[in-house]
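DM between two lab members

TW: hey, do you still have the DUF2188 domain-containing protein entry open?
JB: yeah, one sec
JB: this one, 102 aa:
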Amino acid sequence: MNENVNDQWWIATIGRTLIWARLRVLDAGTAEVLDSDGVSQPYDSEDSARAALMDAEFVALDGLDDDDARSRGFALDELVPPSGEGVDVLRPQMVQQLPSRH
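TW: and the structure you got?
JB:
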């Protein structure tokens, strides 16, 4: 049974390295965050999951605009969120190195 209501991708950056996290909001109003190690962390609400991500200096991908991306050192069109089903498929995509700019 798939309880998935809403998936949101979040990123943190270290130079040209992107670290992804997936915030999943479930039917029950609870949430889980899949971290870059492929571990799902449960939260009692979407708000508490968002707060934890923001505390860890993540930003929501859907909240980024071109200026935000540029200030972080990349262009929005460089961002490709992890895709696929299951932790084994997603885990290797959760940390991405963007190509160097010349």
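TW: got it. The chain has one domain: 4-95. The helical segments are 46-55, 66-71, 87-90.
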